[in-house]
Amino acid sequence: MDLFKLFFLIFIVSSCSAPRPNNLGIVEAKLSPCPDKPNCVSSFAASEDEHFLPAIKIISNKERAHLKISGILTKNGSAKIISTTADYIHAEYTSSVFKFVDDVEFYFGIDQLVHFKSASRTGRSDLGVNKKRMEEIRFKFQQNDF
């Protein structure tokens, strides 16, 4: 193996294991804003912002919504719930090939909405993975059989 390939392999492996961000959680009834990169979506972003996706509407109550989101995450093999409280869930999604980690947060504290943020830990672009993930979670959440 030549030196360039070895360096590239070390770079890929080290970039996949980025540390957990220190800005996770709820601060002043919000999740932290998305970074200035196109690898994040959030219901707290301004509606004209490229990071914006609307929050998930709660039809029943906050406790049932929390259970539904927890169930959706538990049934996904690439998701792992890291922490949970009555108002909050933090999960990590790990990609199957390169083991990139995305942090996904849910906040059940205000209005009749589940607010969220889904962000890649590394890289600049996620090729739309976080947006697609949150749209799939929204779809599953809206199904009555879950």
What labels describe this entry?
146 residues; alpha+beta; 6-stranded antiparallel β-sheet; two-stranded antiparallel ribbon; 3 helices; 8 strands; 28% helix; 25% strand; globular
Description:
Helix content is 28%, strand content 25%. Strand 7 and strand 8 form a beta hairpin. It is α+β, with helices and mostly antiparallel strands and 146 residues long. It has helices at residues 3-16, 62-74, 129-142; strands at residues 26-27, 30-31, 40-42, 56-57, 79-84, 88-94, 101-107, 113-120.
Radius of gyration: 16 Å
CATH class membership: Alpha Beta
Mean pLDDT, to the nearest integer, reads: 88
**Fourth-tier CATH superfamily name:** Kinase associated domain 1, KA1
Helix proportion range: 25-40%
Can you count the beta strands?
8
**CATH topology-level fold name:** TATA-Binding Protein
Alpha plus pi helix count: 3
Distance between the termini: 50 Å
Largest sheet: 6 strands, antiparallel
Strand proportion, as a percent range, falls in 25-35%
